[in-house]
Amino acid sequence: MAPSDPNTPVGARIAAARRARRMEQGELAALACVSLSTIKKIEQGKRNPGEDVLDAIAEALDIDPARLLGSARRSDSRIHAAVPALRAAVDAYDLPDDGPVRDPAALRSSVADLEGWRLASRYTQLARALPEPLAELSRAVQSLTGEERLDAARLLASAYRSADAVAYKYGYHDLSARLIELMRWAACNAEDPVLEATAAYVRMEVFFASRQPVSLSAGLRTLQAAIDRAPAPDAVAARAAVGALHMRAAVAAGRMKDATTAEVHLAEAKALCSSVREGVYLGTAFGPSSYRVHEVAVGVELNDGPAVQAAARQWKPPLELPAERRSHYYIDVARAQLWQNLGDDAFESLRVARRIAPQHCHEHPQVHETMRSLVRTKSSDRESLIGYAKWVGVI
User: Fold this and answer.
1) Phi, psi angle pair for 257, to nearest 5°
2) Which domain holds residue 245?
């Protein structure tokens, strides 16, 4: 029974993940801070891990807990349970409760953890961890002065963006819109025009969520205005921020079937990324590989299936890209393959997307749409297909 099989026991999944990392049981036990006998019993199916033990094992294996369970239901419930505390931290942004404020290095480390989990689509860890640093950073912005306050505001903007990832992916669009506005507020308090450009990039989510042509048009205007306001792309961070805005504008134009505008923004993004090494800049991945992912996304939005297929045969996203972006690439490719009547290829692309970032894949509306079509039309490999469809909740 393969680890990708939804019926595989959790112990077998843990054992398979451990072996894939060439890790001995003793090493896993030490990294997870649990006894060796516990690891052995779990892998043998003699004991089911509790939530805390499973989380510790998943962290030691650098894998999302949902992948070890073969189901996102547990992750979903824990994320939804964490949302009230997240809302409370957001509501008190200007009047946080009393409490300590750690030194700047500790605050930066905490925010870096949040950003790393966001980019890896590890939303369960994000949701559970967010309320405390949001409250602490709000206290820092309210209590500090000078450069320390500016730094705290930059970190708070990043933390709000991480919180938005949870809210947006799990359908709390009212909370997402609120978090985006607070990200913009924090960016203004940081007096950082590059960070303000990044906030405009995130704001586009509000318009994408609507899916209405009038909203997409408004969102595209918002992105173009942000490009006009952004600082000159002299420094690397500014080039990355402006280039990311152009990439997102290209996708928005593609979704509006405006090929000319999409091509203009893609050309601008390509020119900017030619002098930028692939990396994460102020929380957004940008560079040559990110450009290629967006080029495929625009092709999908413009219904250019053959071009997407040709691009997918020639190039695969490298591991240096964040998991969410790599997963999104295969979700887009699956859509193009479906339109070319390549059902088997489309399903395989979705399986790859799931292996890369299961929580991202589970919540993605385009995965749901593609799976509904595959369930109706694909005749082979029905058992795996139905299992996947059940996993994402479309049947």
Assistant:
1) 65, 30
2) 192-302
